[in-house]
Amino acid sequence: MNIRPARLRPMGDARSLFAVAFGPSMVTLVVVAVVGTLVMVTQQSDLAAAFATVAELWLAVHQVPVTVSDITVSVLPLMPTVLLLAGVARVCRTATRPGRPLSELRTVLLCAIAGPVLFTAIALAVVNDATGTFTVGTPPPLAAFLYTVGVHLLGALIGLAPAYWREIGDLLRIPRWMDDVVVDTARALAAFAVAGAAIVVVRLAVQWHTVAALVETGNGGVGMFCLTVLSMLYLPNVMLGAAGITVGAGAQVGPVAASLFSAAPGQVPAVPILAVLPGGEAPHYLLVLLLVPAAVAVSVGRRCAAREYEVWPVLRALVLTALLTAAGLAAITWVAGGELGGIGHAGVDLPQLFGFTFAWIALVGALTALAVQQFGDTRAVRATRRSEEAVAGPAGYATYSDEAEPVDDEVPVGSVAHREGAPEETGVAGGGGELDGAAEPDDHAAEPESAREPAPESDADESDDDTGDFDAVSDEPTEDLRPTRVPVVVDPPRAERPERRPERGTRPALSAGRPAGRRASSAAGRSGRDQVVSDVEELDSYTFGE
């Protein structure tokens, strides 16, 4: 038995495309039909206008201006629109998965737009037919279609962006640093929204007497409930107005004007959410709200400085973030405002909002970024310091690569070998003279090791060019190191000798049973690497020898 999955199938399936095209629209239509019918029943209105009411509510959800009794209202609640955006985004995200071709992405976007446009066309036809019977007006068709396409296209893009943003960016040749700019812009807008919500909640708590008095004007339980629901639907509009005030812009609702520096009281509609408006002069403690844009700007500046080490890329990202944030906040506030019938205009001064937001983030953010780069310790600064230290090496230590090579190039490698019968040396040979391949007198070779006396220490024997590397000194003791003027190539100590597994049946080179002539012939055939190791040990004997 086949069990049908609970999630929608990948895009390209007819059922998924049908859900994208008609799912959110059908849910919205059912909700507005139920709400409209309940309002008409509670107000004892004629149900003959139910279809026109539902059509008007459908247009209002998409922010299309509504005209009733020759009064046009364009300040429409944003809460239903926000919920519709969330629903469209979720359906589109569920119907897609990463790795699908862009052709199917275009199909999903077209389906997300086609269904709502069809419903908007039907709603316009119903409203136009009801204008001869009821006191409703037909909105401009072009504006209605544009608002509908904009709402559903924005919701679809929000849902598809996490999976397809980078692929579309590569197709349009958008640089990858723009990803961080978009993220910073979204965070800044969210911070302003949260600050506006906090201001509204605090003002409602302070003015709770006024809020209760406005709710009681509903004349009964149903009226009080409707006023409460209406206030909740307009909550995002008031939040955006409060967020605009924090940057220094002015806001007004008809005759009432408010800002951080002044206020003008007046008569407003009896809606409980409007109790947040000032009833007199603006108190001086409202100036503390200027910390909101300052905090947002500091946060943006710190994030930009943490990603880049150079100044110009930081300023470029910061200015672009400020521009996008100011434009986004102004656009959302413009949608939230408009004409409120006979009361007048309601909303925020858009030129002031755009200019002040851009100035706060660009100027304060730039100062913060420069201060962080100069005095702070960011990821980019730490990464740059690590790369510089890796190139320059540890400070205060000299290495052989930094000094002149003391080995005489005139002497071919391997020209000095053990003489027949010479005793095996376990120390490091060294001396103040140059390496020479000429043979020494035979009495030195025949002289037993016990008869040899170490040369007395003398300052003149020490070379003036001290190239010793202190980090190269291992745990080996220096008591056995003694200088000698006879350059002898010897086997390196066991700790530094390359790992060589002896053949089966043979003994190591230092075993007492091996003939001296055989050892000499073996030393003559050693590689150039052993000679270099001997020269390095000779240099160390200058400094650490007895």
Automatic annotation (TrEMBL):
Annotated coiled-coil segments of the chain: none
Record key words, sorted: Membrane, Transmembrane, Transmembrane helix
Membrane-crossing segments per the record: 17-40, 71-92, 104-124, 144-165, 186-206, 218-235, 242-264, 284-302, 314-336, 356-376
Domain of life where this protein originates: Bacteria
Comp. bias (Acidic residues): 402-411, 456-478
Biased composition (Basic and acidic residues): 441-455, 493-506
UniProt region (Disordered), positions on chain: 383-546
InterPro entries linked: DUF6350 (IPR045931)
One Pfam match: DUF6350
Annotated Low complexity bias: 507-526
Name of this protein: Integral membrane protein
